[in-house]
Structures are given as C-alpha cells and as structure tokens.
Specification:
Blueprint lengths: L8 E5 L3 H9 L4 E6 L12 H14 L15 H12 L4 E4 L3 H8 L14 H17 L5 E4 L16 E6 L10 E7 L1 E4 L1 H4 L4 H8 L20 H10 L1 H9 L11 H6 L22
Parallel strand pairs: 1-2, 1-4, 2-3, 4-7
Antiparallel strand pairs: 5-6
Helix pairs in contact: 8-9
C-alpha cells in the first residue's frame, strides 16, 4: 500500500439500533451484514417480498450456500436491513455461512455454557467467518479497519475483539490443498467510533425515536446462550418458531445451564426489562 492509498474501512452491521447508528453516522467503503440462517421455512419472514430481497442480496456474494429460508434471528431482520439500506442510501452487502443446522452437524453438538456443549462457536462461524471470507476473496491481502458498534457504556467489549483468524484452506475453501492451514492471519483491526465520540445507549435510543425502521425487540439469535432465561421466555412468545427450532435440537444436549423447554415454562418477573439481553460480540469467540 502506497502512502496515497487509504486503508479500507468496513462498517459491521448486525441489524440492531447501535450498529445501525454506525451505518448512519460513519462513512465506510463497505457495509457488511452476516445473517444467521437455519433450515426451517417457518423461521422466515412472512412477506415474500423481504424473503426475495434477502435471497437477491445473498446471491451476489454467497450463492454457493443456496437459498435462505429461515433465520435464528427475529425474522423482522429482513425488513430491518431493507429499510436501513434505503435510509442510509448506501449498499449493504449481505453475507452468510453454513446454516446453523449444518454447523451443529459438523460440530456434533451445540454451542453453549452447559455440560455436554462445545463452547461458543456460533458467533465465530456464523458471523465472523462470512466477513472473513468476503475479505479473503475480495480485499486481501490488505488489512481492513472495522467500525464496531461498541458504545461508551460498554468499553469492556473491546478487550475480546480478535484481529486474527486461523482457517483451513481446502479444495472446497478458496481452491487450495485440504491440509494447508493458515494460522494467526492478521486481517483486520477494530475501530470503536462510538467510544471515541462518547455515545451512550440513551443516545442511540433517542436517535431512532423519529425514524421509521422496524427493529427487533431482541436482537441476534433468539435463543443465544448468553441471554437470561426470562429473555428466552419472552422470545418464545414473540418468535416462537425460532425458539421451537432451538428446542428441537435438545435431544442430546442443552444450549444453556437450563433447557429451552424449561425456559418456555418460566414465569416472568414483572420487573424484568425485556430486550436488553446479550447478543453476538463479533470477536469474542475463536473456536
């Protein structure tokens, strides 16, 4: 890279209000969004327009993964990203990895914190890996800068952001020999503009008050292993198909210290603040 060339900047978008704020306020060369897909048609958006939109977007860079029929996230995410792209006036590139179903088969178990699970591999392979593949195919070898939606009131999240990637390259992965591994590849560095600009959660909420974008009540995978049991219970009411899908995977393992089945029966504390549960940290996991 010559002194006149600038480093490529990426906005990492998740479909939540905070990353949407990043997209609206900080210019980038690319805006990337990774969708977590599951193979259950009941978990798609009920409006065919948004499903077609999603598949049209994914076919540009991820056509080898096939059609998306459902997501582990609130299905309103399809509409959210459509509306956000219109409001931003810039292209949002949709990415995906293998379906959650296939990943569970590959790992022969579930991600989670409970006994019998394999640790938190879901964020790594369903969120980070698609972004890495995009970089590897279209932007490498230059390291990129990534704008992350870490607010001033959650600075601790920067401690777990990973800048390297270990990956096997094979005949089905970038056209190289199966036994060739690249370890510790430096491919990105994090930028945290919301921390630099002292943006708090309240600032994000206030910004979206008068904007006509439909956001999920609870972002990211509806059954995330870091969500509290009350959160899973509420999600079972608002997104029952996603929670039912997660419960169907519990024949041999559990996602949490509790089961999805138990969470569905849980009695909600009237003082529980819904919609503030954990989400993907986009860098905490490298497993």
């Amino acid at each position: 890279m010559t002194p006149l060339e600038k480093q490529i900047i990426i906005n990492s978008l998740s479909g939540g209000k905070t990353s949407g704020y990043i997209g609206m306020h900080y210019k980038a060369d690319y805006n990337l969004f990774s969708l977590v897909c599951i193979d259950d048609i009941k978990c798609g958006h009920p409006d065919n327009f948004f499903m077609k939109y999603a598949n049209d977007k994914l076919s540009k860079y991820c056509k080898d993964y096939g059609e998306v029929i459902g997501t582990a996230e609130d299905p309103i995410i399809f509409q959210t990203m459509y509306e956000l792209e219109q409001l931003m006036g810039q292209e949002i590139i949709w990415l995906r990895g293998v379906s959650f179903d296939k990943l569970i088969d590959i790992k022969k178990g579930l991600p989670g914190k409970a006994k019998g699970t394999l640790g938190r591999f879901c964020t790594t392979w369903l969120k980070i890996a698609p972004a890495f593949e995009f970089w590897y195919k279209y932007l490498a070898p230059e390291k990129i800068k990534v704008n992350l939606g870490f607010r001033y009131d959650e600075q601790e999240r920067t401690d777990t952001f990973s800048t390297t990637w270990d990956f096997p390259v094979s005949t089905n992965n970038y056209g190289c020999h199966r036994n060739n591994w690249v370890k510790g590849l430096e491919w990105r560095e994090g930028r945290f503009p919301l921390i630099e600009d002292r943006i708090f959660h309240k600032d994000i909420i206030d910004y979206w008050q008068d904007k006509s974008i439909h956001f999920a009540k609870d972002s990211n995978c509806q059954f995330c292993i870091f969500k509290k049991i009350q959160q899973i219970k509420m999600n079972s009411i608002n997104c029952p198909d996603q929670i039912n899908w997660a419960e169907s995977k519990e024949e041999k393992h559990t996602w949490h210290k509790y089961s999805i089945k138990d969470a569905k029966k849980y009695i909600i504390d009237p003082e529980f603040n819904y919609g503030t549960g954990a989400g993907c940290t986009a860098g905490e996991c490298i497993s």
